[in-house]
Amino acid sequence: MKPKVFIxxxxxxxxxxxxxxxxxxxxxxxxxxxxRGVLLAKVAVLDGLLSMLTDKIDAELMERAPGLKVISNYAxxxxxxxxxxxxxxxxIIGHTPGVLTETTADLAFGLLMAAARRIVEGDxxxxxxxxxxxxxxxxxxxxxxxxxxxxxxLGRIGTAVARRAAxxxxxxxxHSRTRRPDAEEQLGLIWADLDxxxxxxxxxxxxxxxxxxxxxxxNARTLNLMKNxxxxxxxxxxxxxxxxxxxxxxxxxxxxxxxxxVTDPEPLPMSDPxxxxxxxxxxxxxxxxxxxxxxxxxxxxxxxxxxxxxGEMPPHPVNPEAWQKG
Length: 326
Ligand code: NAP
Ligand code: GLV
Ligand code: GLV
Description:
Elements (H helix, E strand, L loop, with lengths): L3 E4 L5 H7 L4 E4 L8 H7 L5 E4 L7 H5 L6 E4 L9 H6 L3 E3 L6 H16 L2 H9 L20 E5 L3 H12 L3 E5 L5 H7 L2 E2 L2 H7 L2 E4 L13 H6 L5 E4 L8 H9 L5 E4 L19 E3 L8 H19 L10 H6 L1
Helix pairs in contact: 1-12, 5-7
Bound molecules: NADP nicotinamide-adenine-dinucleotide phosphate and glyoxylic acid (2 copies).
NADP nicotinamide-adenine-dinucleotide phosphate (NAP) binds next to helix 5 and helix 7.
């Protein structure tokens, strides 16, 4: 009998071409995620689940999925999954590191530039019919070249952003729990403690996973350390930032701007006060959203899923220790 698999959203064909021949597949066809109740009912008979970051995979769900061997997340971040619980149950988790690094770094740098040079505000200004002449004093932004970029988290994406920053003539400080002498030497990066990075940054870009330790890492206290001319860029997870504190800082002019690809919650409700601020650019979580990268992610997610179903270690496991138990 073929293993039973549920794919929680439509994906690039590349994934299905790999999965269809060897599995009995069901794909959730709608634009919005399957409601929780539907997901809980579906998992009862599954061997494998190909999930999105919009699916909450917790103990309750795993309890209802006695046959589940593998969860393949179509993302590098896995904060939507209770990993210790999966490990306890011998369920292996796969994710998609590396293939989306450069694409996400491009977006982070694009957001940085958009906020620095007020590109989105400029577009609104043109469309509103306000562009009546070239002006010496209108829409003045901040220079990127020569500025100091602070990075929090120097993993794959953080390092790719550092490379872009170095080529733009920025000075780059970083904070990560582990120092990276290789990157320091190759890219001229400087390690500093978090508070120093916050104090010195003209731009601060976040690249940690969302964990209990990083939740609200950017909060009223840490925002107060930042320059009032600084711009915050977040392409990590919305929960890394205390959004109420961010709104207050932007609104009161204690922070010059923000550019967010991720918010808490997602989607950001239309009533959210951040949407009233001209100095806040918001993208709908599109860090990895290039045609080529989403195709590579689909292939990687399919490969992780199929390996797990065969009882093999997925090429990109999150909790390899689960496999010992499984
Ligand atoms: P990664 O290579 O694992 O890098 C994460 C870095 O964060 C590591 O260098 C880690 O180093 C550091 N870190 C972890 N906890 C920390 C802490 N408490 N303080 C300081 N640094 C800490 O992951 P990645 O591939 O670069 O992806 C990073 C995150 O980006 C993902 O987890 C995901 O949430 C997000 N993401 C978003 C998008 C998007 O569409 N916007 C796309 C892809 C990824 P140490 O453990 O040594 O400190
Ligand atoms: C996207 O946010 C990812 O974690 O891949
Ligand atoms: C601006 O367009 C300039 O020529 O300085």
